[in-house]
Amino acid sequence: MGLWGWLCGLFAGPVWGSARRSPQWGRVRAMVLDGATCSACGVDRGLEVHHIEPFHIRPDLELEPSNLIPLCERCHLVFGHLGCWRCHNPLVAMDAATHKGRVHEYRGAHHG
Ligand SMILES: [Zn+2]
Fold this sequence. Notes:
binds zinc ion; 4 helices; two-stranded antiparallel ribbon
């Protein structure tokens, strides 16, 4: 099938999202989520760990703390993946921080 077919097979289909994860991932993930809140909206429930450099592109950064950011399920899709699981947002950390600042500023004004 050639290299191209192999690459397509790698990035599409059932392999997506189920790529081989390090045995350390569970521990690192738990560490990132320990006491965490969503980096974009600040909720403390339904949190997921997002890879800033996607796992399928930089598997070597899978366990790198500076490449990980806690996001709730909703913000994970919106900020981490720009609304599409096949996309990724290289500026997720900045966007999340900007949004969080906004949430604090405006929600704080209304709810104390
Ligand atoms: Zn959120």
